[in-house]
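Journal club side-thread
Mid-discussion, someone asked how the predicted structure for our own chain would compare to the paper's figures. Pasting it here so we can look after the session.
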Amino acid sequence: MLKRIGVMGGTFDPVHIGHLRMAEEALEAFGFDELLFIPAADPPHKTEKSLRAFEHRLRMLELAVNAHPKFRVSDLEGRLPGKSYTVITLGRLQEEYGPEAELYFLVGLDAFVELDTWWNYRELFERARMVVLSRPGYEEEDVGLFLARKVSPFYEMDRNCTSFTHPTLLPVYCMKNTHLEISSTLIRRLSSRGRSIRYLVLPEVLRYIEKNKLYRGLSNPVQ
């Protein structure tokens, strides 16, 4: 039987309840057998100094999802050499899970409309089904415009107006999700100033951040 595998990538510096809520809603909507959180080891758009160590970010994710029956954390990008490119990650995941697995890549609409800045971005539409999560200030029409201009004019919206299909490329789904005004940037900023981040992250993650003093005294917590 085919397995549906949800994939959520990011720096997760740190993981917060907004990430977890989006993942939970996607899991429920698409019936994933598993949902993988994959922290980026060396993202091309970040400098190494602007991120906490991969091991810290991986551990915070493990603490955050440990109690969930279908959430998993993958250290895949930490095992791959060089920059962390999503196309390569998805290809390796397909190898690990085998041809019976369908990959669903979760991406915010704000990031989706900038996919053309990603390395070999057109291959993404060959490797995984896209689940585009809604974002304030963006409309679902932006998905169709991006696909037509940057990927292929042969993408068409289906009858239910919930996905875009293509003769040869994989479908793209639009998903409405709860908008929580929480960001890793906000958490780093608050923590660097000695202010509380309670209820923005899970208690296990909060204890880890405090024990390791991850964000105290950051010179530029906005990064």
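Post-session note: The chain has a mean pLDDT of 94.
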